[in-house]
Amino acid sequence: MKINKIFKISIHRVKQNKKRNLIIAIPIILITILLLTINIIQYSMENYIKSLENNLTMRTISSIRYSVFEYEEIIEKIESIEHVDMVIGEYEENIYGYKYCEQLKTKDADGYVKINPINTKTCPDITNGRKLQEDDKYVLIIPSKIYADSEGTPTGFRDIYIEKRNLNIEYINGEDLIGKKLIISFEASNGNTLEKQFEIIGTYDSNLYNDMSTLYTPKEIIKEINLELNPDLLPELEISVVVDKIENVELVKNELISKGLYEKSAILQEAQKGDSSETEVNISRVTNINVETINIMKKLIIFLLFASILIFLSFLITTNINKAYLSSTEIGVLKAEGYTNKDIQKMTIIENIIVCIISIMVSFIVFILIINISNIIMDYIIKKDTIGLTMNEIREQLFYIRQIPKKINPLFVLGISVVIIIIEVINTIFINKKILRKNIRELLKS
Amino acid sequence: MMKNQIKSVLRNKSNIIYIFTFVILFAILNVALTIRPLVDQYFDNIVEEYSNTLQTQLNKISSYENIKIDELAKTIQISKELTDEQKTEIENIKHVERLEIQKIDLEGEEVHIQYLYLDDWKNFEYVNNRLDALGISGSPAVLDEQILESYSTIRNIANTIQYLLIIVSLLVIIVCCRNIVKNEQKNIKLLQIFGYKKSKIKQILFVEQITMLIIGLIFGIVLYELLYFLLVHEMLNISVENNAVMMVAINAIIILLPAFLSIHIKTLKS
Amino acid sequence: MSKIEIIDGNKEYVKNKEKIKILENINLKFESGKLYGIVGESGAGKTTLLNIIGTLDSFTSGKVLIDGQDVIQLKEDDRARLRMEKIGFVFQEFYLNPNMTVEENIEQPMFINEKYDKTSRRERTSKLIETVNLTPRRKHFPKELSGGEQQRVAIARALANEPDIILADEPTGNLDKENEKRIFEMLQSLSKGGKCVIVVSHSSKIEEYADQVIKL
Questions:
Q1: How high is the mean pLDDT in each 10-residue block of chain B (270 residues)?
Q2: In chain C, whose CA is at the least distance from the CA of B13?
Q3: All domains of chain C, ordered by start, with CATH?
Q4: Of the N and C termini of chain B, which has fewer Cβ atoms inside 10 Å?
Q5: Those residues with Cβ within 8 angstroms of residue A179's Cβ, 6 or more apart along the chain or in another chain
């Protein structure tokens, strides 16, 4: 029989056998929704992993002491170590004093900011504008959403929530400030004040970096401001080292130790006073915790995917067999009418593919509906005045979940659709083979 | 009667395939229930290692002899001076064992630090939230904040995966049970013709479903133990004590609920 | 008093706002100890009438009295009880449980009858299997039996609770002439044994065996 005729008959059968087709439609809908949910979880985990990796603090080895006479030599030694992105002197790390910007003040934010050092290697990923260049001086890279407030030094959505317990906070859109000038006032503890003008060259994703009040400027500028603000600064005694990736922190640390540049924390120094021949205390499990965290998270998501696929496969096979069993008599009638095995195979496959496509489309609609409804419910609960700490904790969790971007990745969608259809086709072929082996009488009797 | 009905159900090949699905579902479900205890155990090992390492070093120093790191690992340090009222409130917080003020000799100076001893380091976040509400800030006395943050994140992911797989397993089993009942329609009509009451038929269907689910559960548990041994014991080299009560309860719900929901039958026309 | 009495029975369906009359002004009496044949063209309502008598369906208007009791007024559970105690069904497609053996199929209706305990149930099953001459096949499944053998099992099952009424809907429809004869003879002997047997059939043979033929 010609394929277009088979196609027409298959469409007709889909319309006729709605109830029977529900048997395979339901598992496909369930698994598609599950896979889409896993995709969101995976996406937010990747973002979290990126934010860990992007977080400078996580890959900074700090408080490396050195003798004041060896400064240049030390810097050279450290910079020669592989995976070192930036070496920051004590006065390049932070501006000592208050940093205030009138232009960043809102009804909720008092206008106080943090300023962190960068160089061309450690520049955050830019969402708008441009990255830091070698000859840049008084420039700033700012968060895409700015909330410049000193209270509790909130650094991200979670902290803001804890501090304010309120969602109607006025943020400043960083992108609007690109190309503009910001005047930042500095006030040291000795009473000295200073004002500097910076040009905004780019923004970074405040969500990804979990930071809404940190501005980035070249480390040399930070030192310049420090020296201007505090002319009687003592000689620098500490260095921090920024490593290129979180997994290389341990490597660099060991390298620093072998060069005699890294000293342990006070408690450990005390601990080793009695025995100088003792080998290095290994607390790498802790310092490496972020790498382990990332690995565990990846393993968990793989487990979830694997489990879902297994559930899906077994469920789909079962329901396909069920549907085929219910169709036996019909297949017997078709064979009696003169349809060949091949015709019946093609018809069933096309029918099941149509059911797959319709089910996948329905899944998306249902999924989008679920997301929207759950967003509305979460917004309602979050904005409600609650009594009791437990309810507040739930609100906090919901707030966090609410921030997770619920995107449907079109490639992923295409991917799972294709996979589901292929599995369904293979399923149909194998199950049909068994049924079509029976003779007509057996099929009609069943 | 039940014996005959159950025999009849188990002889049906399509039901055997459903039992196979149940085996896989129960195996996966019970693995999912093990994730959270696994995560807890994993981090407990990290904390223990950390504590032991520090303790080994501190034991060599006579002035630090009395400091027990394993206890301090479960401690929140509060530097702010507390009022008596605050002390009482804090001691009433769940998971708090006691509040102690310790004097530490740090580089020749005597320092007073208030330590809040918890029953488990994992309850740090819970207690810290309650301290926040009282306007008191505390920090872990010894434990690295990174451990706490990592544990918190992974625990949340583990919980999410657990709940997701429980819900999915439940839904799948519900749909399977409904399909099984649909397949039994002819037999149900026959029993009604013989004069079986609706309640009796529901009873029969319920027992049939439970039997299939229990068979699935038993083999599922066997498969789970195998997976557990291979994945957890051999690969991760951790042994974990599961919360048996919780596992039994969840498995029981997943058996009973779908069976209950699926036994709606239409009666003959009257 | 007649065993079964139908008074002014009417049955109609409504489809797409159109009334379709299946049965009109049916007035019939059925006595114990007789074999009745119901014949008629296709669509005359023979199976519908049989189902109504067997309380599987009901008239749109009219009464069905079994032993003087109006069955339409009964609640669902009472109707079930009536079926269990007084009525045995035999179908054209046999409707045996394919996953139960011959003896398990015959035993099934007896489980809800308080009259039988385990021993008496087993005894009665053996007796019924003997009656239909299927003792060597008692542990076999329906798919291992011929059409005639399956129908004999169905009859034995219908007799399980010693009903007074046997309703057979085209019992020989799927059988060859030899088996058809055997089944009709079996039904006739049941009627002679005191049961009220009502048979719907297309076969002309029914007129040979029936005490009364009702044409719809």
A1: 84 86 90 86 84 77 68 80 82 85 71 83 86 80 78 84 86 87 85 88 90 93 86 66 82 88 63
A2: C99
A3: 34-47+80-215 (3.40.50.300)
A4: C
A5: A129, A199, A200
